From TrEMBL:
Record protein name field: Proteasome-activating nucleotidase
Source species: Natronomonas salsuginis
Main localization (coarse): cytoplasm
Keywords in alphabetical order: ATP-binding, Chaperone, Coiled coil, Cytoplasm, Nucleotide-binding, Proteasome
Entry GO CC: cytoplasm; proteasome-activating nucleotidase complex
Full-protein positions shown: 135 to 405 of 405
Localization, UniProt: Cytoplasm
GO terms, biological process: proteasomal protein catabolic process; protein unfolding
Family designation: Belongs to the AAA ATPase family.
Subunit structure: Homohexamer. The hexameric complex has a two-ring architecture resembling a top hat that caps the 20S proteasome core at one or both ends. Upon ATP-binding, the C-terminus of PAN interacts with the alpha-rings of the proteasome core by binding to the intersubunit pockets.
Protein residues bound to ATP: 61-66, 200
GO MF annotations, alphabetized: ATP binding; ATP hydrolysis activity
Function: ATPase which is responsible for recognizing, binding, unfolding and translocation of substrate proteins into the archaeal 20S proteasome core particle. Is essential for opening the gate of the 20S proteasome via an interaction with its C-terminus, thereby allowing substrate entry and access to the site of proteolysis. Thus, the C-termini of the proteasomal ATPase function like a 'key in a lock' to induce gate opening and therefore regulate proteolysis.
Domain remarks in the Swiss-Prot or TrEMBL record: Consists of three main regions, an N-terminal coiled-coil domain that may assist in substrate recognition, an interdomain involved in PAN hexamerization, and a C-terminal ATPase domain of the AAA type.
Amino acid sequence: ARAQAMEIAEKPDVTYADIGGLEAQITEVREAVEDPLLNPEAFEKVGIDPPTGVLLHGPPGTGKTMMAKAVANRTDATFIKMAGSELVQKFIGEGARLVRDLFELAAEREPAIIFIDEIDAIAAKRTESKTSGDAEVQRTMMQLLSEMDGFDRRGDISIIAATNRFDMLDRAILRPGRFDRLIEVPEPDIEGRTQILSIHTRRMQLDPDVDLERIAGDTEGFSGAELESLATESGMFAIRDGRTEVAREDFDAALQKIERDDSPGTPVAFY
Ligand code: ATP
């Protein structure tokens, strides 16, 4: 059951080139995670400790998991992912044991990157969540913090966490020696959206009338994940029409479909 709760990849196939926008964030992640793994001497020479844990925060589907995977790819590290919600267990001590297993596994598979998604599930302020008032959830969090205190950062293990609910977090986890490097991952701006669209259409044959910048202009508020679905939907419209080339009308139809599906109370897709 324990192994099932974790997602392990020897070397994830995501690279920085697969991520649209987020240049500044990628630079920060590289400095905080990649440099300490690839070039620990630089930190020793300068006489500083690298950050202990990195916290990525921002809306859903903006590329947080992709960034963690891309660092693992670049550093040839094993990527070990665990969702915070999986650490909330029924039986006493079970969450804490999963945390111990997580760090043990990472030590066996060094170099390794531990990625804890939805960290808010175990690290919410007591006032914000029912579960965080739970003594068992508190114990799980304490176990995580003690593992972080205990591990020698010069060992080849890095820890990255992510949350969509930064406001909800118990500030105790952000202290020095814990998640002490915060990186905000925002919704993409128009340039970011254009880049993300070109990434997700790079294997598609686009009709010359497709203007990705115009589409980026029409998709304010879309996340990377939503732009990816837009590209996929457009391809589906082309297939339905018996074409292999994807045209402007397909993107328009896909956009309409997505907007329709999104607005509550309207009938769902009727193509
Ligand atoms: P969550 O908070 O919901 O876990 P996340 O921020 O971790 O979301 P990802 O899992 O990294 O989001 O992104 C989901 C998918 O959306 C990716 O697999 C990718 O296809 C697409 N995507 C998201 N952001 C980007 C981006 N910046 N560039 C390219 N693709 C992106």
